[in-house]
Design a protein that fits this description.
Elements (H helix, E strand, L loop, with lengths): L1 H21 L6 H5 L7 H7 L7 H9 L14 H10 L5 E2 L2 H7 L6 H10 L4 E5 L5 H13 L3 E4 L26 H12 L3
Parallel strand pairs: 1-2, 2-3
Helix pairs in contact: 3-4
Length: 194
C-alpha cells in the first residue's frame, strides 16, 4: 500500500505542477526532488518561486480541494487504510473531522462519517485541533467517549505563515474537564523547577 501511495502522490505532484506552470507559476523542481517521503500540497506550495503571497494563501487559492483549480488525488478507502495502519502496528486516528466537514459545508454528515469510521475500526479522533471551538471539542469528545475511543490533540506546526492556527509555543486547549491553569502549574513545576 505504501508503494502505491507514494506512486499516487508522485503522479499527483506532477499533474499539479503541470497545471500551475500552465498558469505561469514557476516551480523549483529540484526542491520537490529532495523531499523525503511523500510530496504534499504544502511541499508544492513551498516550491512555487514567484507566488508573491504566503504559502497558506497560495494553498487555499490554488491547491485546496475547494479551489476551482483543484486536481483530484487518488485516495484509499478508510477500511483499507485503517487495516494497513493496524497491520503495521499503528493506531488509526481520524484528524480534524469537524473542520473538514465544516469546510465542505457537510456537517450534516457527521454521524454517518464518524459511524462509518468507527465501524471500520478507527481507534480514536482528534478532539483538540488548533483553534477548535468549544462546541467542536465537546462534540468530538462526546463521540469518542461514547464509543470508548482514544481522544487526541494535534501538535503539528506548519510555520508562521499559517494563519488561523495556534502559534508555536502557544496552545488553545479547552473543553470538558480541562483546566488550563492546572496545566500551567504542572508545567512550571515539572519543566521549570525553582
Amino acid at each position: 500500500m505504501m508503494d502505491e501511495a507514494k506512486s499516487n502522490a508522485d503522479e499527483y505532484c506532477e499533474r499539479v505542477c503541470s497545471m500551475l506552470e500552465s498558469h505561469g507559476w514557476i516551480i523549483d523542481h529540484e526542491n520537490l526532488e529532495h523531499i523525503s517521503g511523500i510530496p504534499t500540497r504544502h511541499d508544492i506550495a513551498q516550491s512555487v518561486v514567484n507566488k508573491g503571497m504566503s504559502n497558506y494563501d497560495f494553498h487555499y487559492e490554488w491547491l485546496a480541494e475547494t479551489s476551482p483549480h483543484a486536481i483530484e488525488m487518488k485516495k484509499f478507502p478508510a477500511a483499507q487504510t485503517i487495516k494497513a495502519i493496524h497491520q503495521a502496528g499503528g493506531i488509526a486516528i481520524c484528524a480534524h473531522l469537524l473542520r473538514t466537514l465544516e469546510m465542505y459545508e457537510r456537517m450534516d454528515m457527521l454521524s454517518f462519517v464518524a459511524g462509518t469510521l468507527i465501524n471500520c475500526g478507527v481507534d480514536g479522533f482528534e478532539v483538540f485541533y488548533g483553534k477548535s471551538s468549544i462546541e467542536h471539542i465537546e462534540t468530538m469528545f462526546n463521540i469518542s467517549e461514547a464509543n470508548g475511543l482514544l481522544k487526541t490533540g494535534g501538535s503539528d506546526y506548519h510555520g508562521p505563515e499559517r494563519t488561523g492556527r495556534c502559534p508555536l509555543g502557544k496552545y488553545n486547549v479547552h473543553g470538558p474537564g480541562f483546566d488550563q491553569k492546572e496545566l500551567i502549574r504542572f508545567l512550571e513545576k515539572e519543566i521549570m523547577p525553582p
